[in-house]
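[job 0417] fold request received: Protein misato 1
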Amino acid sequence: LHPKSIYVIRQYMHDGECGCLEAFGQGESLLQDPSCTEELEDRLHFYVEECDYLQGFQVLCDLHDGFSGVGAKVTELLCDEYSGKGILTWGLTPVTSNVGDSQNSYRLMNTALGIVRLSSHSSLFCPLSLSGSLGLKPQPPVTFPYINYDASLNYHSSAILAAALDTLTAPYRLCASQGSMMHLAETLNFSGRKVAAAWASVPFPALHGYSLPDTLSAYQQDVPSKQLKSTRVTNIFSQVPWKNQRIGVFFCSSSRHPGKPPASPLHACESTEQVLQRYLRAVFPGAFSTSHVLEQPCNTLPPYPQFFSPLLTRQGFLLDKPPRYSSAVESIPVLAALQSSPVLHTLLHGLYRDLQRLNPRRWASFFSAGVEEADFREALEELRTLSQCYETGAEADEAEDEADSD
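[job 0417] inference complete; emitting structure tokens
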């Protein structure tokens, strides 16, 4: 890493039982220090001046601790100083376990404030986590059929999220790409929908020796992907329509066999892009979608963890049975999608309801760090308003009944 890309916060410990950056207000106050802001701006200008074409900024930020406040102030600075540029923010949370009451409450409050503030200053905000829940009650982590990972190891969970993020951002990162970061955000952030949901299949279950049409034909009813944000909804792909979506898939295979009649409409397509687009229209009729197919796979060479199923080949394709001699998986096909979906109402409104049950007076230390209780209540209402942007008709009726009962 270039020395200009690193800024160390020396006021707090990275880990430990005390002296941690644990509250949103602590993170915000760091960026209110003129010397800190000046240092950050200097580092930003160093890179901006080196750019031939500045699309915007990617912000990766922890939501569960005080870095939520740091990220909120950073995105506010970027929004003010670089208006018109894209700001894509990814809110990261670790897999939750049975933690103390105080830690759990801090986590919820940091997460809620982070979602509200980060989304308001970003072109698009997307939560990324393998945790089963953002709420009060911990849920089992997301599982992947061909990965045996330890959710308690950041080394493992971050590798899965990195593969998904690498795929999701490819449409505007590649030199040959026609779309920009801002264009991607604008296709999803309509009508106040500043939050997107991420899905991924890591690895994409492609059988060795089969083409992309062969593989997709086996998933006509249910896309083989997992949701990378914390809400427990079973088989969500077949339950709700996709209002907007972007899909990137790493795959390299032939779709047609000269001299043979096509086995299905997918096999009749001229290119892999047409295959994927036709598949999306068939599985999600009426939904607007844009897809991208990349020929290069997702590399999993060291230091990427080798936590893959023995059924995977060196190139990440599936075998019927484990080979006699196993070898390290060097690359995998990945499918990932960003979407604006009603499932986000479940996530955001669920977090709002959990926080409504908390008594702020019990957590005076959280508010003494710099967040006023009135500002927190206002942020909760903003979270509720944000969740309403993703309501379906039935959910809107339920919300009205709930408001009447209140």
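[job 0417] notes: The chain has two domains: 24-141+348-387, 163-232+242-255+263-340. The first helix runs from residue 24 to 30.
[job 0417] exit 0
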